[in-house]
């Protein structure tokens, strides 16, 4: 399974060490976003940028190429792997409440679920699932998305249980805790742990614990419907085909949520500032495992080390990519600067089979906001 947001190792990493990014004088973020839209290849973009308590938000280009509806910050989009931070927050809250321990083996919480050649579920802990050190990979079958991309059935449903089953057909990427590799399937397992522990729908737990307290009224978690609610961006592949209608069933707790730039910015600011977790669990959130992509994974969040004009800086947050949508939600280390940027091209077929996934890397806009 691909397309849920592992961007640091490709679209972003290609320019992580760039320096001297050229943007126009005045508003460098707006200029950098303008370079991405239109001739830059993305039909549209929506952005929220914060410096201290000063917030600006804007859209560029089109939310819908067919109708020429202008893109605006009120438009929803599929946030893909930004979902993982919401899921990790619930797991960490449950740990703080004593309902589970991050040292619990997955076999203890989900007996009999992780079964496959070479897998050792009694050695895979919940912490390993959170920080991508479990060795559980995604389905390796390149035909996984054929029902959507080849047969054209965008409403096709693949349940999380089926994704997990197909992931475990092949041997693990490595023995538990001995490597680092991004795993969407690991977050599907965490979703099942949440439901097992709480005896409640994971979507209701996210609603009660995060969305309602923070007032995130434009964020929701679809289960299988391929349609987006309310005003939203349309998402496209590299050929310009509209990919907006696409069932998120396979992505579930790895990447199915829908939001806006304002809601996503509010969530990440609260999370990284420690407003959603007790101190011990906040430390777990930011307990980093270096990866090979110029950054590190925490519990549901990631960091990117970026060469700015005055030296290397660390950005905190999430990235997200799925059929038609590509987003970045990042803050600088002290939280004084933040950007949430959503763009409406991501080519899932290219992700699966090789090829160009987005027209242009968005890192110059992120650097303009955070450097």
From TrEMBL:
- SUPFAM superfamilies reported in the protein's UniProt record: beta-lactamase/transpeptidase-like
Uppermost EC category:
hydrolase
Plastid as a keyword of this entry, yes or no, is: no
Enzyme Commission (EC) number = 3.4.16.4
The reply to whether Nuclease figures as a keyword in the UniProt entry is no
> Which domain of life does the UniProt lineage start with?
Bacteria
Q: Which UniProt keywords apply?
A: Carboxypeptidase, Hydrolase, Protease, Signal
Signal sequence, renumbered to the chain: 1-24
Annotated Beta-lactamase-related domain residues: 30-335
Q: Which GO terms describe its molecular function?
A: serine-type D-Ala-D-Ala carboxypeptidase activity
Protein name per its UniProtKB record: D-alanyl-D-alanine carboxypeptidase
Native source species: Amycolatopsis roodepoortensis
């Amino acid at each position: 399974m691909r397309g849920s947001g592992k961007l640091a190792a490709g679209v972003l990493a290609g320019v992580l060490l760039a320096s001297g990014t050229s943007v126009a004088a005045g508003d460098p973020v707006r200029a950098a976003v303008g370079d991405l839209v239109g001739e830059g290849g993305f039909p549209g973009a929506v952005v929220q940028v914060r410096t201290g308590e000063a917030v600006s938000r804007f859209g560029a280009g089109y939310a819908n190429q067919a109708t020429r509806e202008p893109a605006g910050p009120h438009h929803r989009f599929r946030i893909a792997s930004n979902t993982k931070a919401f899921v990790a927050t619930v797991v960490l809250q449950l740990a703080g409440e004593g309902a589970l321990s991050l040292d619990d083996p997955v076999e203890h919480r989900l007996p009999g679920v992780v079964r496959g050649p070479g897998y050792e579920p009694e050695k895979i802990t919940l912490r390993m699932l959170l920080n991508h050190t479990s060795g559980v990979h995604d389905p390796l079958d390149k035909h996984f998305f054929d029902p959507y991309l080849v047969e054209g059935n965008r409403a096709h449903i693949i349940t999380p249980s089926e994704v997990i089953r197909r992931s475990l057909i092949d041997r693990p990427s490595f023995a538990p805790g001995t490597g680092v590799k991004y795993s969407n399937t690991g977050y599907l397992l965490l979703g099942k742990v949440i439901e097992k522990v709480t005896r409640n729908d994971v979507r209701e737990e996210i609603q009660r614990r995060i969305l309602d307290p923070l007032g995130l009224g434009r964020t929701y978690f679809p289960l299988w419907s391929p349609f987006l609610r309310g005003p939203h961006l349309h998402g496209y592949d590299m050929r310009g085909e509209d990919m907006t209608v696409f069932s998120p069933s396979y992505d579930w707790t790895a990447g199915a949520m829908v939001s806006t730039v304002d809601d996503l910015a509010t969530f990440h600011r609260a999370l990284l500032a420690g407003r959603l977790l007790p101190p011990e669990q906040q430390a777990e959130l930011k307990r980093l495992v270096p990866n090979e992509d110029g950054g590190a994974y925490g519990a549901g969040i990631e960091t990117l080390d970026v060469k700015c004009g005055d030296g290397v800086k660390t950005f905190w947050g999430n990235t997200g990519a799925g059929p038609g949508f590509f987003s970045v939600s990042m803050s600088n280390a002290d939280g004084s600067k933040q950007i949430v940027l959503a763009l409406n091209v991501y080519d899932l077929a290219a992700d699966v089979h090789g090829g160009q996934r987005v027209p242009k890397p968005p890192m110059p806009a992120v650097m303009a906001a955070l450097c």
